[in-house]
Amino acid sequence: MALDGHVIAVCGGVGGAKLAFGLARTLEPGRLTIVCNTGDDFEHLGLHVSPDIDTVVYTLSELSDRERGWGLAGETWNFMDQIRRFGGADWFNLGDRDLAMHVQRTQRLAAGERLTTITAALAGALGIAHRLLPMSDDPVRTCVATDAGDLPFQEYFVRARCEPRVRSIRFEGAAQARISPELSETLARRDIGAVIICPSNPYLSIDPILAVPGLREGLAATGAPVVAVSPIVGGEAIKGPTAKLMRELAVDPSGVSVARHYRGLLDGLIIDHVDAAEAAKLEAEGLAALVTGTVMQSDEDRIRLAREALAFAGRLKGAR
Amino acid sequence: MALDGHVIAVCGGVGGAKLAFGLARTLEPGRLTIVCNTGDDFEHLGLHVSPDIDTVVYTLSELSDRERGWGLAGETWNFMDQIRRFGGADWFNLGDRDLAMHVQRTQRLAAGERLTTITAALAGALGIAHRLLPMSDDPVRTCVATDAGDLPFQEYFVRARCEPRVRSIRFEGAAQARISPELSETLARRDIGAVIICPSNPYLSIDPILAVPGLREGLAATGAPVVAVSPIVGGEAIKGPTAKLMRELAVDPSGVSVARHYRGLLDGLIIDHVDAAEAAKLEAEGLAALVTGTVMQSDEDRIRLAREALAFAGRLKGAR
Predict the structure, then answer these.
(1) Is the CB of A220 inside 8 Å of chain B's CB atoms?
(2) Does residue A170 fall inside a structural domain?
(3) Which residues are bridge partners to B294 per DSSP?
(4) Cβ of B82 and A75 within 8 Å?
(5) Which CATH number is B61's domain given?
(6) What is the ipTM of this complex?
(7) How many domains does one find in chain A?
(8) Nearest residue of B to residue A97 by CA position?
(9) Strand ranges (DSSP E) for chain B?
(10) Nearest Cα residue in chain B from A79
(11) Which of A191, A192, A216 is nearest to A206 (CA)?
(12) What is the per-residue pLDDT across A250-291, written as a single tens digit (0 to 9) for each?
């Protein structure tokens, strides 16, 4: 059954961006809105860096470095080299080309422009026709409480390489953050066909989005099926600290745990073939399950998984 | 006669930096203070750029690109390339390595640090042991009134390539600008042996310095001989718009005109061999003249001219 209507994809960085790419290659620009995590945003060397937005922009524009997994292909590092000569902070790499994004964003923010319109302009300049919305124009900062103390997200993720044991996670500013007019309009559409939660870290990438007051409720209120792709495959994350983090939070790293994490919002979970045994458990908990290949290596993988996710949501909608 | 005491060099960008280099290779760090023009400073892409300070820093640290005449040797331009993709302002080139300077300076200014201490730290990090002081920590902005309208300095100098006809020049903020504590201390020293006005543009590079209230008087009050190197050779500037500008201001481009411009402050002028005929005119106006080679192509030229300037000042001091 083909899916009708507009699709909202909710995503964080690398893993999520791959599915967002697949969705963008499957759906016309007018049919997809990507809502992106900004809890990872931070000020570095005086510049406003939005790592998840940048990853989605670079992935969708096909400018990303697929080998390294982040940043731009063909990047050079002379700025960082000179920063090092000055004794400046060098634990977060900013490539020479990538810097243009941060400098433009910082300048426009300083001029009073909203992150939403800045993101649209910068993404548009790189040829992205699909709508990409930050989860909020207000600052939300993910902070990780660890056995090495409270760490701002990038200090945990990049500087400490996710090594400290995580005790809890909080989203500073989330309670005061507002949904942007653009996102409000999208949530109020009557033609939402599906909400896709991309295979990003549920705790670090999706939770900050859902922590913006009214956003989780707004997704549910669309009435569309909410489908997630599990970022856990065979008890491990494809990339990043999701599985390690879940164990530290005393949660078994599995699709079932991911589904329970999204309880009350989720209608169906897509899990990998290696986790096929979990399908029955998910269904026992009242959720639909789709078993397929969820590891996205090629563009074809991304597009195929996107199509399967949309078809899965379409079936759930049709069954209502 | 060898010159004793501390030397204050007053300079702008490229031409002045060459003599500053010669002075720095001639005098121990404790014997030289370079006072640099900041009237060219501007905000570009949200970054605070101090072109004359940067030129002096890169020249003294031997990191400058001697062929191009500005910026760093071995520079790359990927940031600018990406800025262009975003449709950002690309009329003022910022190299990838050079960016580190502007980003560090901007960040430290935003944190409330003074340009003087920032300059000392950044220059020190690049190995500069001599003291380099901005003319003021307060913003002074050179503005050029032209037949194409009022232009901020860099819009005139870089964007419009000095093509518009200049009517007058003003230094916005100069009346409110204060001499920094560090520069005040230097001016108050009792052992100043010479003040050297480097061969920078008198109107665009030296005048903004002298426009800071108390600075011109402070230089005069040191009691040391004030010696300038003429930036005009054979009726033309070695580099830049000095001669064109003088003609537009109805001033004959000559050493005599430069000397008259500095009247009341200057004790002696150094002119090139090709202008030897002007020596008598200068002496007739009560100024000492030194005729020598003033075109600095090699490091040896720079050091020789610096030594000659110091010896010239020493003779003027001895003759008092």
Answers:
(1) no
(2) yes
(3) none
(4) no
(5) 3.40.50.10680
(6) 0.92
(7) 1
(8) B79
(9) 6-11, 32-36, 42-44, 47-49, 131-134, 141-146, 149-152, 166-172, 192-197, 226-229, 232-233, 236-237, 268-272, 288-292
(10) B97
(11) A216
(12) 999 999 999 999 999 999 999 999 999 999 999 999 999 999
